[in-house]
TrEMBL record, chains A, B:
Source superkingdom: Eukaryota
Pathways involved: Amino-acid degradation; L-phenylalanine degradation; acetoacetate and fumarate from L-phenylalanine: step 6/6
Originating organism: Humicola insolens (Soft-rot fungus)
First-level EC class: hydrolase
Domain Fumarylacetoacetase-like C-terminal: 166-433
Protein name: Fumarylacetoacetase
Catalytic activity: 4-fumarylacetoacetate + H2O = acetoacetate + fumarate + H(+)
InterPro entries assigned: Fumarylacetoacetase, Fumarylacetoacetase-like_C, Fumarylacetoacetase_C_sf, Fumarylacetoacetase_N, Fumarylacetoacetase_N_sf
Pfam (any one): FAA_hydrolase_N
Amino acid sequence: MATNTWVEIDPLTPFSLSNLPFAIATTPLDPNPHIVTAIGAYVLELSTLIGNLSEEAHAVLFSPTDQYHLSRILASDTLNDFASLGRAVHRRVREGLQDLLGDSPTFPEALRDNPAVRARVMVPMGQAQFRMPVAVGDYTDFYAGYYHARAVGAMFRGEDKALMPNYLHLPVGYHGRSSSVVLSGTGVRRPVGQIVEGSGNPTPVTKPTGKLDLELELGCIVARSSPGLGERVKVEEAGEYIFGYVLLNDWSARDVQKWEYVPLGPFNGKNFATTISPWVVTADALEPYRVKPSVELGVETQEYLRQGREDRVFDIQLEVDLTTAEGVTTTISRTNSRHLVWSFEQMIAHHTLGGCPLRTGDLLGSGTISGPGGPGEAGCLLEATLDGSKPIEVQADGKTVTRSYLEDGDTITLRGFCGPEGARVGFGECTGRIEAAKWP
Amino acid sequence: MATNTWVEIDPLTPFSLSNLPFAIATTPLDPNPHIVTAIGAYVLELSTLIGNLSEEAHAVLFSPTDQYHLSRILASDTLNDFASLGRAVHRRVREGLQDLLGDSPTFPEALRDNPAVRARVMVPMGQAQFRMPVAVGDYTDFYAGYYHARAVGAMFRGEDKALMPNYLHLPVGYHGRSSSVVLSGTGVRRPVGQIVEGSGNPTPVTKPTGKLDLELELGCIVARSSPGLGERVKVEEAGEYIFGYVLLNDWSARDVQKWEYVPLGPFNGKNFATTISPWVVTADALEPYRVKPSVELGVETQEYLRQGREDRVFDIQLEVDLTTAEGVTTTISRTNSRHLVWSFEQMIAHHTLGGCPLRTGDLLGSGTISGPGGPGEAGCLLEATLDGSKPIEVQADGKTVTRSYLEDGDTITLRGFCGPEGARVGFGECTGRIEAAKWP
């Protein structure tokens, strides 16, 4: 397989030939939302490209897919129908595109040596407007970031009770809210909620949250629907149900969450917004970056969760930037997704164990990802600042300021990538800016 | 408004002229799923009926709706588009139908005195096959049944800590799973899950639940979508966002739930199936049956939850039948929805307080409804049997047997109705039969 492309790319681009993620965009060439991929600083109009290949080129590069059908699906306004075609088709399409974009294409006249076609299918990325990549049916958020779960547990229950007993045996998760999953770039209004101030005072006040937080997560998009109600997906088959991955910011209002979450879990403290990146990095693109989790739970795994391989998670470098209202940026966290202790295959096996159906486009969040190294590796401010008691420092307009939690006008940007320069597999950015509360 | 109908009806039918609920069905007259209403033992083909009215009859009975548009929407395969038209349209359509079906119709030739039209639009209910009434976007389950929350809390935490402090101040709820919301009549497979046996033993085993339970609830279907991310719906406007109500059984696996639910709430213990009735009873049909909740929380209500009326809930008589595999039925519970302590308007105001969007077709569950009078008024077996320690008696094939929790082959049927004989407003039935687990 080609690793170099004839397209001129920045060696630091997350969109090398090794990646080829998928997104939904409108462009000057096609004002209807449709599926695109990325190569360097360009998006590629896939329906047009595939639809105009010669029969021979399609047969060699993309068989056994039907050219008309594939081109039509690539014109969709969500990735759902494409995702539902299954891993074999995603793989075939990505490999066909790697041939077309590689430095020794089988059909040079199909794209590389054809200025007319290039003009019809290559669009500078800055001219594309992105849309939600998938129609999300259900959103489930897990809690598989070991160091985050331990640090937050220790903060609230003490070091010896940091992890609840069930944490060692199952991927703890809860049902989130799909109606508030939004695209990177969408403004996030500071939510209002019931808040109890001080301790020992059980009378809440209703007001804007004073503890608005981010949560750095990896999201997984479900490809095929599971067999149905009452049927499970075995862990060894679960990989076939994964379309790809996004960056995910599960914004949280810690004061609202703290008051409401017993006994039924987080509700308004979480459901006001969840931001995902526009680019879905395919499961195949991340396959070479599988690693062992950085930590093991030290108990025997229930049989239905035994995946039969040690390299269950990905070696994705993750970063969080905070940009103040004045436009000054500080990288406040650097961590890695190998700190997840459960894989998405295990999450799928657990989620369907009782027969709960998964559907194409469902979104699974990993849980907040933090490293073991303290505030600079924390995936949220609750953990980095010890619930605001030790504020972190960020740069503002020529001076250093502190943050316990997010302030109006702050922008959070998540980034993630694997691989060496020139062959990076990354997500681009997942951003959101805090807007002032609307209250009363 | 007419209260008597020219259609011959059983005085005990839940589908009197005062009701006119909506459902999705296929019939011998129209094999495509479409919208129907019910009168006595008949379903009525609404698209055909409305589409074939004279212009004058439509104008008088259904203006200002557009006849073509309304007829087209009534041919939909879900109620979503109809629901999104808003309360004024639902009310107008119901009132127009009450005229057509009432004992002094303005246009007798439109239906009553026209055998040809009657033959094209009236179908014996037994010939109709029902479908899911709405495409559910998100499903949220609240916990507003006061006596249930108190009884279960007392069981697990003792009488003095029965209600958590937040219970008095907000409608506690959690996000459920929309992919497993199913129509009445769908089989419910006994789920498998992680279960810890005995106490003080933190190693779970994976096996079929031994504590399969029902939960008697009222469900609310959202009509209009809320204004969007970051916008709230005020409690005094919330009624306009309600299309109607269904019976809802939130099946639960108590042993699975107990192990998994700390700290993020119920997950696999709840997400394997939630059953709803096919008929959506409109908000208007229940309006005459508003009453005060049977209990007050005794604290000052937060301003955003003050509804400005005391009659916030409905006087709906509710019953639960258990039918054994041999086909013998025992009514195991009789209670009333006035034991809900928060209204659906309050739930909507709370749900959107932080800016979480509601969408047409979203489903809100009330939480389990129990009365104060012990096992015979309990809305679930956890409560009726004190977690299995005091089994209830049910009738089987010529003998009395006990139930701690549900057994394979048991069928649970929920029923609910208001009003006097001849003018009943009811839901029909919401049923599900337990199928054996599929394990390993």
